[in-house]
Amino acid sequence: MKKRDNKKFETTFDPQKMLLSDSTPFSVQEAYKTLRTNITFSLPGSGCKCIGVTSAHRADGKSSVSSNLAISLAQINKRVVLIDCDLRLPTIAQKFNVRSAPGMSNWLSGDIAEIPLMHLEDKNIDILPAGNVPPDSTTLISSQEILRLIKRLKESYDYIIFDFPPITIVSDAALLSNVIDGYLIVVRHEKSEYPMISETIRQLQFADAKIIGFVYYGLNVNRKYYKKGGYYKSSYYK
Hints:
- By secondary structure, this protein is an alpha/beta fold.
- It has one domain (23-235): P-loop containing nucleotide triphosphate hydrolases (Rossmann fold, 3-Layer(aba) Sandwich).
- Helix content is 35%, strand content 18%.
- The chain contains ten helices and eight strands.
- An eight-stranded mixed β-sheet has the order 3-4-2-5-1-6-7-8, sandwiched between helices.
- The longest helix is centred in the first third of the chain and has 17 residues, at 26-42.
- The model is unreliable at 6-13 and 225-238 (pLDDT under 50).
């Protein structure tokens, strides 16, 4: 089996250029609208919806997907907060070019009294960055404090998007399965491997998590099949 070259692959895209904007190619914008619509139908009913985004590997595109999903939902006037739950290797702050701390880890640890949310006027979303890297992120993610945090945020938002670490590396994503309404698994074109995707599904199912779909990520926009298949494409799990 061909070995993944994560270092080479991670430099393929500029993180900030991957965020949805007016200059984003039309087909990419439409693909996210399709993903947004599918999620809306997969999670019907009123009240705040909690969506977890994870993957099998690092550099599969989960943080870009979670960021752009949040932006896309805000485009239809939904109140959205994006939480960087990858406390070991956070990337959300870098993508949006904002401060990384204080953040969620600082609030969960009791270092600060107020939830350090940041509002991005141009994207119309709120962000809760990861904060300082804690010595034991699993303990924070499984604490009663994070449940209290989620309860408070659900009073103010229509959607809470969680950017989780890859589930085959750490178990953090599955620890909140009892409060996550649905999980998206990001699968990267020509990089994700079937055994690891299968293991991702197995671990989420073991935690009794609801998998609402897969996001196929990373097709080359310059290739012919980009126009036919889209840059991002959702495929829903039954």
